[in-house]
Specification:
Chain lengths: 104, 154
Amino acid sequence: MIITNIEIVPGREIVEHYGLVQGSTIRAKHAGRDLMATIKNFFGGELVAYTELLHESREEALSRMKTQAHHMGADAIVNVRFSTSSITAGAAEILCYGTAVKLG
Amino acid sequence: MKLLFFISLFIIGYLTGRHIELRHFQSIRDREERYHHIAMISGSWKDHIDPESDCKMFDGSVVVGADYFKSVISGLRAVFGGGMNNYETLLDRGRREALVRMLADADRWGADRLVNVRVETSVIGSQSGKRALPCVEIHVYATGLRKLRHEVHS
């Protein structure tokens, strides 16, 4: 499965469009991580625990999107976009979406 | 007693925060130098995309939080208005760190350019508890291109 965030796949022709595919996850941080982050936060800088958490959820969202595209019989997803929004104080939703296409 | 606690947090926040920040900027500059050969383009014009290339999507992300000193100073700033210099450096740092992480990934894969670079900033909510400090995620993503090796091409 080829994934790009541009409109095309270089050197390949798009022969069919299957429409929008998407994947999303909502993750909450757990208490242990939250505590560590609070302590770390006094000194500023990167909060590694959160970076990892959001990275994992993004991977999950991507893989859900890929599964959906796979079921449609697509072999690439073009023009992928991400969006993150915080739902409550402890949770964030990560959404990714793109257009599933068949390559020639 | 409460005031003493506040002042010591303020000073510790300032000193360690500053120290970490300076060290971090130095490390970012070093790594940016290392990936200088990968061109980053924020558009996806056809002229920049060689049809004879492989593509893969890359991303990099980082979550940054303000230290105690910064949040107190910005509290004051919010009253008088004006530029929040201390937050500018924090977000700049996060953004460059995220870009460098993406570059490192792309470099390992052998990319020679990254097109359609997108930068996204989102507030992921402050911590629970009384002293809530701002917490921001920066996510960058782009499509990496590398020259097609003919033996791989089927």
